[in-house]
Amino acid sequence: MSSKSKGFYEWPRKLLHLAALSPAFLLPMLTRYEAAAMAGAALAGNLVWRRWDRSGRFFRAGESLTGGIILYPLSILLVILWLPYPSAALAVWAVLAVGDVVASILGRAIGGPKLPGAKSKTYAGSLSFFLFGFPAAYGLLCYGGTLSDQALWLAGAATVGGALAEGISCGLGISKPYDNDNLRVVVGASLGFMIAWSTKTVWM
Predict the structure, then answer these.
(1) C-alpha 97: how far from its chain's center?
(2) What is the pLDDT of residues 57-88, one digit of tens each?
């Protein structure tokens, strides 16, 4: 399969990845356990879908249970349970849904030098990750009720954390083209958010 046709093949998956952000708008209206139940239901649904899907439009050939469509809802479930309040997951969710998708699309479209140790990730993609992930995280945090000055700091920390997680994993040679990308971004963004949250007494 040519790179051009492969890029076209990925479009349904990328659009699904982005559309999966829509349930995030319910988070401010849900308790932690209601939000966790929502993410758990999405995880169960994706597991069933993976078992029976034969279209080949969303699951890559040979994709394991560590593929993105399974790790996406699992990562969100863990974030909802870990972060200090349910709406905090909005920042990480936005970074994952918007930053990661735009970085992949623009990184391939623009091309250019690749990150050290990376086969497919470029500096252009990493810059796109921040330029689009940050405003998305900021906007959703404000939507969730976080004060704008706090949201600015928290969204920035989450976006930088997600980008650093990708860059460091590539540099250490533990990045794969497909598997675990969602998990790496979520872990990095969550750590960035929690570091910023733990220092709120300094900047508030």
Answers:
(1) 5
(2) 555 555 555 556 778 888 899 999 999 888 89
- The helix, strand and coil proportions of the chain, stated in percent and rounded to the nearest 5, come to 75, 0, 25
Q: Three-class SS string for the chain?
A: CCHHHHHHHHHHHHHHHHHCCHHHHHHHHCCHHHHHHHHHHHHHHHHHHHHHCCCCCCCCCCCCCCCHHHHHHHHHHHHHHHCCCHHHHHHHHHHHHHHHHHHHHHHHHHCCCECCCCCCCEHHHHHHHHHHHHHHHHHHHHHCCCCHHHHHHHHHHHHHHHHHHHHHHHHCCCCCCCCCHHHHHHHHHHHHHHHHHHCHHHHC
Handedness of CA 177, 43, 24, 158 (dihedral sign): negative
**92 close to 79: Cβ distance less than 8 angstroms:** yes
pLDDT band at 108 (very low <50, low <70, confident <90, very high): confident
Mean pLDDT of the chain: 80
Would you state the pLDDT for residue 45? 85
